[in-house]
Specification:
It is a multi-pass membrane protein. This is Olfactory receptor. Residues 41-287 form the G-protein coupled receptors family 1 profile domain. It holds the Pfam family 7tm_4. The protein is an all-alpha fold. It has one domain: Up-down Bundle (Rhopdopsin 7-helix transmembrane proteins), CATH 1.20.1070. 70% of the residues lie in helices and 3% in strands. The chain has a 3-stranded mixed beta sheet with strand order 2-1-3. Helix 1 packs across helix 11, helix 4 (94-127) runs parallel beside helix 8 (193-227) and helix 6 (138-164) runs antiparallel to helix 8. The radius of gyration is 21 Å and the shape is globular.
Length: 311
Amino acid sequence: MEDGNSTEVTEFVLLGLAQTRAVQLSLFMFFFLFYVVILPGNVLIILTIHWDHHLGSPMYFFLANLAFLDLCYCFVTPPKMLVHFFSHHKVISYKGCIAQLFFLHFLGGSEINLLMGMAFDRYLAICKPLHYSTMVNKGFCWALVGASWAGGFIHSIIQVILIVHLPFCGPNELDNFFCDITQLVKLACTNTYQIEFVMFVNSGVITLVCFLLLLISYGALLVRLRAGSSHGKSKAASTCVTHIIIVFVMFSPAIYIYCRPFRSFPMDKVVAVFHTVVFPLVNPTIYTLRNREILSAMKRMLGRYGLWRRK
């Protein structure tokens, strides 16, 4: 029992993604192969951007930070999920659950803020090209990244403060493979209407507003590029389209999970898998596959160390 927050429950049972042994092993093989293939690719993106001086622009600096956030995000819930595929007693401690919730929202909130910063960077590059190099300097880039992390921390700590003051008396089963606010509040032994409303605004409404602002901003930039001169227009438009794809991939599951009442729906686990496991690693990959400069830099770096043979 935890006297500090009147909590009797000391651990939570995670029901996981499947109950049958055969399905669990199949899922383990799928996620394990996915990580073996995609995870090194994301590490390679970061190394390539830091290694190649041709990729020293702010846009690639932000991409490296996005890839780093996604890598960190993928170590919050999947490791325990993979271990639980071989465990009959799928449990997580109360403190472990709170820690998982904190880092999930800390990194997710930081990534949303970073995507907003990347949109602002594209706005300055397209609409203020003559002043871009002086306005977006190294200090500005680090300040923007630091503000993104600070915003993510504030968002996450609000969620944690609201959760740790809730009493949990049982039951202690979470119908998912990780801890999140939508699951935990339903187990509290008290009326959680006001807390759910605050969490809905803090996670759902803010996420939806950021999503709409990003779509509007990139839409306006595409319209401006279409009406402007042809110099560099194709490359800038391609970058904006790539950012829009990443925005849809990142925000769609989050909007589904948090922009609704905290009740169970049939597709919850499927969306949660894409939200916490698949999409974070796919985001930088989407960007890389649509960017010839990064692909060329990767080949040069791998070729230098004898890992890539030029034809």
